Amino acid sequence: MNTLRLSCAGRPVGRYSYLPGDHEGRPYLHPVTTLAGIPVTEERPADHRHHLGASIAVPDVAGYNFWGGRTFVRDQGPTVLDNHGVQLHLGWKLRDPDGFVEELGWVADGTELLREHRTVAVVPLTGRAWALDFSFSLTNRGRAALSIGSPATNGRPGAGYGGFFWRAPKEDRAPEVFSATDDGEEAVHGRRADWLALAGDGWTLVFAGATGDTRRDPWFVRTAEYPGVGSSLAAEDRLPVEPGETVVRRVVTVVADGRLGRDEAAALVRKVVTA
User: Fold this and answer.
1) What is the pLDDT of residues 202-216, one digit of tens each?
2) Cis, peptide link before residue 31, omega less than 30° from 0
3) Angle 65-18-245 (CA atoms, 0-180°, nearest 5)?
4) Quick check: 33 and 12 in contact, CB under 8 A?
5) d(CA 168, CA 182)
6) Of 167, 121, 142, whose CA–CA distance to 62 is shortest?
7) Fewest CB atoms within 10 Å of the CB: 73, 170, 204, 247?
8) What is the pTM of this model?
9) b/e string for 12-42 if b means 16 or more Cβ within 10 A?
10) pLDDT digits 0-9 by tens, 7-47
């Protein structure tokens, strides 16, 4: 496994890992930490072995699973299938301690379905907060149209996950979740919001859509079962990608020590998204 370490103002805040060659899996960030060193990601937890820190994970690309684990089949439920794809690291366009630009190929059955251009940057904010600016573009490299789906589009209501996904650590008490106007998993899950905050023991994560298309994607939120937040590419309907077409999304995540209130979370989001 190859790794790249990220830092903010000289402090280590993240490690990015990828498997070389044709190994299964996807590149991911873990551990990600606050400036004080508190881990805010989890890797391969017992409840979901395919959760890998912060990553781009999609359960259905033209019928192939780029999420891991079982595949949800309509009228059948979660099923073990031999349909897993891999996100291959093709090379770096830029690689520095405060970020990188990477090219990846989304490959299944020997065919590259999508080519991804990924940009990740570390943004200093305050003495107790920094931001991870994560953007990705997915281009259909084939001659035929394809589409991106989710368990929700395949018949499982409320399970519209797939896209940017962050698995947070499971603690003794479930984290709090809130947006600018709502509180709690039930109120924010499946809804659109400019930003969404997840607050645990000594840390807060604030996720913000940084483009119009990203802000139109609903949030996938779990706190009771496990702590995780994602921005859903196909929450209700499949997302078609024509040949040569590119899907672009950008999520900025504020990583803070302590418990942020609404006003402070909103102010940090405005600062980093404007920047």
Assistant:
1) 999 999 999 999 999
2) yes
3) 50
4) yes
5) 20
6) 142
7) 73
8) 0.97
9) ebbbbbbbeeeeebbbbbbbbbbbeebebbb
10) 999 999 999 998 766 566 899 999 999 999 999 999 999 99
